[in-house]
Amino acid sequence: MSDPFVRVRGLKIGATVYPPGEKPHDIEIVHGVDFDLQKGQVLGLIGESGAGKSTIGLATMAYGRGGVEITGGEVWVNGRDILQSGLRDVRQLRGAEVTYVSQSAAASFNPAKKIMEQVTEAAIRHNKFSRREAEERAVALFTKLGLPDPENIGNRYPHQVSGGQLQRCMTALALCPEPDLVVFDEPTTALDVTTQIDVLAAIKEAIRDTGVAALYITHDLAVVAQVSDRIMVLRMGDMVECGPTDQIINAPQQEYTQALVSVRSIKHAEQEPTTEPVLTVRDITARYPGTRYDVLRDVNVDLHPGQTLAVVGESGSGKSTLARVITGLLPPSGGSIDFAGRRLSPTLAGRSLEDLRELQMIYQMADTAMNPRQTVGTIIGRPLEFYFGLKGREKQKRIQELLDEIELGDGFQDRYPAELSGGQKQRVCIARALAAKPKIIICDEVTSALDPLVADGILKLLLELQKIEGVAYLFITHDLATVRAIADSIAVMYQGKVQRYGGKTEVLSPPFDDYTDLLLSSVPEMKLGWLEDVIAHRKMESAGN
Amino acid sequence: MGQVATLLAQRIALSLLLLFLVSILIFVGTIILPGDVAQSILGQSATPEALANLRAELGLNDPPLTRYFAWLGGILQGDLGTALTSGQDIATSIGTRLGNTLFLAFWAAVVAVPLAIFLGLLAVRYRDRWPDKLISAVTLASISIPEFLIGYLLMYFISVRLGWFPSVAMTNDSMGFWDKLNAIALPVMVLTLVVLAHMMRMTRAAILNVMQSAYIETAELKGLSGLDVIRKHAFPNAIAPIVNVVMLNLAYLVVGVVVIEVVFVYPGMGQYLVDHVSKRDVPVVQACGLIFAAVYIGLNMVADIVSILSNPRLRHPK
């Protein structure tokens, strides 16, 4: 075999950190990573946040984000060590030989410039093509990537196309200068699942047709299994395991990889509703003040005591709005909500303290849901004081009980949120909600910002607490794997309406309506060739119609 | 385009309303000031009859509301009234002087605005390195020294010692274009130094703010050079705040040049205003006040319009 196109040896990357109350100091975030990449091959980099995968990807362009600096090792691209090259030479490499696709195309496109200008800029700048040639090439790429109206889409501004389309434009931007290597940094993570599958298929086809080498960075093993030839598993800046995709998925050697592959192992059997529902939502219609468009239309759902209703849907489906209506933050324009045998006032001001106490909420961003200047003890103690008037030793005792329940144990009372990990923060938020002894907790995308293993722990904890406390969850999520793991009943929402509603088994079993079918079949599965199967299946179906 | 047209119409209507309110404020302000115009024209030794006659003649006995609308109606027809002290038509006197002031402000702007923006770009390009610090230090120093002092310093060194430009910026209609430019060289320099720092620092801050965006990283990863990244990708997104501060400074160049005009004996609006304030010539003060307000409001309106037009989301709705 010829020399690999990319050869990385002993790559070390450091960064300067500024911890609160301490002196800034340097830390190492990647501790000597080796890999090779041949032309036309795709290497998947996978790991949780902080594993160093993006940092390693950007190192192939000799780029460090923010205060990140490459401190050692070799990065050979096209027969030269780019870490030894000057800035001028590195600029010749960036945008010509190696290009980059970021997670958020919406943020990575300049809002003040037309898409075409941005897609062709690098190719023209590096004299790879004339402007006319580059534009022709861009149109060809737009066509290949399945963008609508490929002749004219380049004349639009970034805000004039949808998120999924923009992500494909970003791929076109990366492929336009005919690079030898493309770094894909979580290119589908920010997309809805039904959009993700199209973008993923478009990217895979483009990689195959252009014969470009690619680094595919993601935290989602099921996604990376669809596009990669080989996978490298990273953890805390170290390589855990590297091998062919088939081996990593089906026969992982390391314990950590095995945990990643078997994540979402929670088995929760559906419970039948036994008693009267604790929450009854009837014919709810709602719109935001000053708009003329209903965000929710005739929503009907029930939630039974001690059970979990999963409200699932893509962005804009109205699922978070439903939570706002139930909590009273957005008074509905029609319909009613019954809670624990009484009619709830539509407005927050009209609700009693008891209503407020029995209906608690946990948010996606645990970070912003806590006062950074209060200790964990103060945060959890606040509802104890407010609702139950607990003070002194009694309060301390209860706080400690709650901390034990969320498995944080001693020594956490005096810590500040900034000193906790993402999973620990979410646990504190759960404890704060539990402190009120609620009948219902509304969980709004509570695991979406967490790494898979951490999210798994949170879900297990929630199920555990449900058994002990008998609390019901209204669980809002876009993630069907989470729904499968914990729901008793499911409401699928689409464009403000409940598309499908019933027990978990019923909702997840055929026959499906069109939307639920599309949604369920778009969730990546951890097996090779899944993407091809789905795409082929869909093509066949649309040909049949 | 519908949305943009509505926004622009709103801006313009708001500016006109503001100007109307300012006209009330100016009028009320000048009549509640103590003192009597007739007295100051005729002097301390005037007889009561002469004073009463003059008051009647000037319309000072009419109720304020009548006087205000008579004044406003005149202005709308281009009649600013006559100066009490000299009896000359104010519109004619102001015409040439406003022309002179605008001439000076225009050339100061032509030098200062591009220079400030260029220095701002340069400061971003070399941020926290010596060129940035040097630019910041020099412009800050120049804004901290009072403008009349800078004026006299430049006069002494450039005009007296080096003999390059005249120290007095007297111009008249018989002078040619280049003679005029030569005459105003020193005041232009002083004004440039005074407004440079503000514009340059705002440009620097606005662009640095944009430099945090993800699309700047995209541009860097395309292999663009540092200055290209700033010029092509950061600057177009920083236009709105930059135009705002530029317009504020242009307004200052027109409205705030009083001191400089006096220092350089330049026949502009500022000198005219100062002369007539000391003579308590109310119609002239009112007219000048209104014109300054119109310039200020007009330039800020332009800034608003530019920032609306520079927003691609408004210019190209979905």
Written account of the structure:
The complex is a heterodimer of chains A (545) and B (318). With 545 residues, chain A is an alpha/beta fold. Chain A folds into two domains: 6-102 and 181-261, 3-Layer(aba) Sandwich (Rossmann fold); 279-509, P-loop containing nucleotide triphosphate hydrolases (Rossmann fold). Chain A contains 20 helices and 20 strands. Chain A has helices at 53-59, 87-93, 105-108, 115-125, 131-144, 163-175, 193-210, 221-227, 245-250, 255-261, 319-327, 353-358, 376-388, 392-405, 422-435, 452-469, 480-486, 504-507, 514-522, 530-544; strands at 6-17, 25-37, 42-46, 68-77, 80-81, 98-101, 181-185, 213-218, 230-235, 238-244, 279-286, 296-303, 308-312, 334-339, 342-343, 359-362, 440-444, 472-477, 489-494, 497-503. In chain A, strands 6-7-8-3-9-10 form a six-stranded mixed β-sheet, with helices on both faces. In chain A, strands 16-17-18-13-19-20 form a six-stranded mixed β-sheet, sandwiched between helices. In chain A, a hairpin with a 2-residue loop joins strand 14 and strand 15. In chain A, helix 14 (392-405) crosses helix 15 and helix 15 runs parallel beside helix 16 (452-469). Chain A starts with 5 loop residues before the first strand and ends with a helix. The model of chain A has no long low-confidence stretch (mean pLDDT 87). By secondary structure, chain B is an all-alpha fold. Chain B has two domains: 2-70, no CATH class; 90-311, MetI-like fold, CATH 1.10.3720.10. Chain B contains 14 helices and no strands. Chain B has helices spanning 2-32, 37-42, 48-58, 64-76, 90-125, 130-144, 147-161, 177-210, 214-221, 226-255, 258-263, 269-278, 282-309, 312-315. Chain B is globular, with a radius of gyration of 24 Å. The interface between A and B is medium-sized, with 31 and 20 residues.
